[in-house]
Amino acid sequence: MPSYTEAISAAGGVPVLIPLGLGEEELLAIFDRIDGILLPGGGDVEPSLYHGNSHMTLWGIDPERDRTEFILSRLAVQHRKPVLAICRGIQVLNVALGGTLWEDIGSMIPDAIEHDISNGTPRNHLSHPVNIRQDSVLAKALGRTECRVNSIHHQAIRDVAPELMVTAHAPDNVIEGAEIPNHPFAVAVQWHPENMIADDPAMLSLFRALVEAAAQ
Ligand code: MN
Known about the structure:
With 216 residues, this protein is of the alpha+beta class. The chain has a single domain, classed as 3-Layer(aba) Sandwich (Rossmann fold).
């Protein structure tokens, strides 16, 4: 968790952690008092939430975390509050808005490149390039339409939620970015920019874009 809060601080924001186990009214009370939301990385979303299937590679399922983050995701969309979704976050946002996931890239997508570079590899290791849609908020925030990114995920967006627009792909067409058009700032990436800010100023710019949108 420190890398997320450090990135928000470095971008000029003030990080606040939201605990699990709160009721919907309590979450709404917190939501009303904050200026933006960051949906961080973590374990897999419970597959029944997207009519998916169990899979031997699933890990870290946490129904309470799913519940809390789905509520916050939908609030951020409904109330047009800035949201940056990272790794698990892009998957949470997609499922909360009606999309689905590949339960496991490696065993379900033929010819996929390796996306789950986690065993013993530093989290800032640049694994693969991504192509970014030119007219996206993501490209504007990063200041570029292609870059190399780290890749620490075994799942990805399958069916894109109706409200989301895909903004980035890996060379194997796995979805690496998405955003909500006409929302002040609802940007999602499949990689981990918080682990890259020391190496690549563009990745800090992504957090700056969130903080700037939140300051409006
Ligand atoms: Mn990847």
